[in-house]
Design goal:
This is Biliverdin-producing heme oxygenase. Helix content is 64%, strand content 0%. With 231 residues, it is mostly helical. It has one domain (9-223): Heme oxygenase-like (Heme Oxygenase, Chain A), CATH 1.20.910. α1 packs parallel to α11 (188-215) and α3 (40-59) runs antiparallel to α5 (81-92). It is globular. It binds protoporphyrin IX containing FE.
């Protein structure tokens, strides 16, 4: 069953989450957003939900900075909360915090990130990988669509979340990141647990898209909407 022996961990984790990546990419909400079928309110709510998720991710940074497993991944140039806050000020106005509420899926996602951030550095790495490496990749496609659909200034307010000002060469950065994954100080069992947590991270993202999709159903996204949304 274990074909992982000898396979670099970066390959293992990517391969293990490939199917869920496709599912997330093709979720009704993402398809509608990338297809230009949603209004800016949907994008603003999505951005707000990311603020809660990245708040949880980045609240753990201080406590994990010296950790031998998670510490090497914590690069200041990745931090997204300040960028999300600038985007939200642009999208919602300076009082945006007053109305910011996590959807149930967001609260569950952020709670899991907080939990692993406090108790399991390997699990935290799984969440870190799922979000930041994704933002450096597909995130760039979302930025381009958002600029075109809602008229944000190129790489300006509204899409700063997707702009990594201090990462001049994302491809090189991702290579280094994968080298860190490959050097993860963990045995095979722990690596398998990290892969499982990555799958869980993808599932938490998909659940969030489902809730967002239910709110902004365009007909197409209704298929991926799941159950009714309490709120
Ligand atoms: C419509 C939305 C999305 C598009 C178009 C997209 C596109 C891509 C592309 C093109 C890559 C490959 C980049 C490369 O090989 O360097 C990638 C990688 C990645 N994406 Fe996405 N993505 C989307 C959504 C997501 C979501 C929702 C997540 C998770 C929250 C995610 C997580 C990742 C991760 C972790 C990688 C890195 C895989 C690896 O090389 O290890 N993506 N994405």
């Amino acid at each position: 069953m274990d074909a992982s022996h000898g396979t670099p961990f970066s390959t293992l984790i990517r391969t293990a989450s490939q199917e869920q990546h496709t599912e997330a990419e093709n979720s009704g909400f993402m398809s509608d957003m990338l297809g230009g079928r949603l209004g800016v309110a949907a994008y603003a709510l999505y951005t707000e939900q990311l603020w809660f998720v990245y708040g949880a991710l980045e609240d753990a940074v201080d406590r994990l900075s010296e950790d031998p497993v998670a510490g090497p991944f914590l690069r200041p140039e990745l931090l997204r909360v300040p960028e999300l806050e600038r985007d939200l000020t642009h999208l919602r106005g300076p009082g945006w915090r007053d109305g910011a509420v996590p959807l149930p899926a967001t609260a569950a996602y952020a709670a899991r990130v907080t939990e692993v951030g406090r108790s399991w550095p390997g699990g935290y790495v799984a969440h870190h990988y799922t979000r930041y490496l994704g933002d450096l990749s597909g995130g760039q496609i979302i930025r381009g669509t958002a600029e075109k659909t809602w008229g944000f200034e190129r790489k300006g307010d509204g899409v700063r979340f997707y702009v990594f000002e201090e990462i001049a060469n994302p491809a090189a950065f991702k290579r280094e990141y994968r080298a860190l994954l490959d050097a993860l100080p963990a045995d095979d069992l722990e690596k398998q647990r990290v892969v499982d947590e990555c799958r869980r991270a993808f599932a938490l993202n998909t659940a969030l898209f489902r809730e967002l999709g239910a709110r902004f159903a365009t007909g197409r996204s209704a298929t991926g909407a799941g159950g009714p949304l309490s709120a």
